[in-house]
Amino acid sequence: QVQLVESGGGLVQAGGSLRLSCAASRRTFSSYTMGWFRQAPGKEREFVAAISSSAGRTYYADSVKGRFAISRDNAKNTVYLQMNSLKPEDTAVYYCAFRFGTWSMTEYDYWGQGTQVTVSS
User: Fold this and answer.
1) What is the SS3 string spanning 33-96?
2) C-alpha span between 36 and 32 (Å, rounded)
3) CB distance 58 to 70 below 8 Å
4) Is the per-residue pLDDT at 20 higher than 70?
5) Is 121's pLDDT higher than 90?
6) E strand or H helix that includes residue 22
7) CB under 8 Å to 44, separation ≥6 — which residues?
8) Pairing relation of β-strands 18-24 and 4-7?
9) First to last CA, the chain
C-alpha cells in the first residue's frame, strides 16, 4: 500500500506560479512512475505530467509543456510539480498518482486526495 499526500495548492493570479508537492508514505521501489493529473469542474480527469524512477525521464501534456516542470527527490520520496505562467484554464483539482513500473498516461495504482488550484484572471 502506498499513500500519497499532496500539498501546495491555492489561489493565484494568472501569470503566477505555484509548486505542488506529493509525499509517498513508504519507501519507493526499484521501478515506478509518479505523475500528476487534474480534473476541472465538469471535465474528465486528464494527464498533466509524470516522471520515472529510473532514468528520471519526464513526460508532459501538450497543454503544460514549457510552463510546468515535474521533479523528484528520491531521498524524501517526494515528487514536485512546479507550475509557472499559470492560466485560468489550469484551474482544477490536481491529483498525485503512483504506479509500479514504467510510464503510462492512464494506468496508475494509487492516488492522492487532490489539492485545489485556482487561477484568477
Assistant:
1) EEEEEEECCCCCCEEEEEEECCCCCEEECCCCCCCEEEEEEHHHCEEEEEECCCCHHHCEEEEE
2) 14
3) yes
4) yes
5) yes
6) strand 18-24
7) none
8) antiparallel
9) 40
The C-alpha cell at 61 is 501534456
Helix/strand/coil for 20 = strand
Residue in 95, 70, 73, 64 with CA at minimum distance from that of residue 82: 70
Q: What is the pLDDT of residues 87-97, one digit of tens each?
A: 999 999 999 99
Q: Please count the residues of the chain.
A: 121
Calculate what percentage of the chain has a pLDDT beyond 70.
97
Residue 78 or residue 66, greater confidence: 66
Comparing CA positions, the residue from 46, 31, 29, 34 lying closest to residue 89 is 46
* Maximum CA extent, the chain: 43
Give the contacts of 105 (CB within 8 A, at least 6 positions apart): 47, 50, 59
Amino acid letter for position 68: F
Closest Cα to residue 51, out of 84, 25, 28? Answer: 28
Q: Tell me the three cell numbers of residue 14.
A: 494568472
